[in-house]
Amino acid sequence: FESRTRALAAAMLLAVLAGALLAPSAQAHGEESAVFEMAPVVFLPYAKAPVLTFEGLAGSGAYPPFGMWTDSDSGVSVEFLHDNASLYVSLRNPNPGWIALGLSSDLDQGMGFVVVGMVNGTVVAEERWAANASDEAVFTAPANSTGTAVQAANSSQVSGGLSADLRLALDTSLWSLEPGALYPTLVAYNTTSESFPSTIAGSEAHVLRSYVFRADDSPAEIQRLFAEDISPLPGSVAIGTITAGVAAITVTFARRRER
Description:
- Helix content is 22%, strand content 31%.
- By secondary structure, it is α+β, with helices and mostly antiparallel strands.
- A six-stranded mixed sheet has the order 1-11-10-5-6-7. A five-stranded antiparallel sheet has the order 2-3-4-9-8, with no helix packed on it.
- It starts with a helix and ends with a helix.
């Protein structure tokens, strides 16, 4: 009986794991999704009442360390935090060049961007749209944007580079981000030109996936799940988390039956 119980528990666990690994993406479709499916994951941590201002965020410790992405070659960095209504982002390009953050909740439609660059001697942060999410994306003015993706911004030149502290809406015409899911993400930048760009072509672009933390997510557990590559497909993290829960319940049930 003991061996049958353990075999049943193992079979149930394998079935759930297979469902998690084979689950189709809710956010990424078409050929472009393949580029993002195995991209590095960045985390968008949750905070109930983040204490953030738009002055001196860099190095203030306001952002959790696991909510940061850095390019070791250029020094470009992005920090994230959200409160279920707004996404707080810190963009830093230590080089004399522009920087952009792109997010998509449907790659078939395209990708929304916030681009930080110089216009007539002033650093601005503006919303843009790209029909294709790639290193050759062309920026256009969003056709259906209400201009509310950027709720607040503080952009400036700092030590020869560009810096921006942003508060973005989680749900806009550019993207719709829900906790518990992965979203295709693009960080693009230039290291020699600060002029507001019309395209990513000729500049650096990093393909990523962003996981939006839920209020009850354990940072350590979520990081462990991704480290073990339990949920490699966009949108399947919630299933992966359920997998771990079902596995724990299954093992507990088996042990109780053995007694």
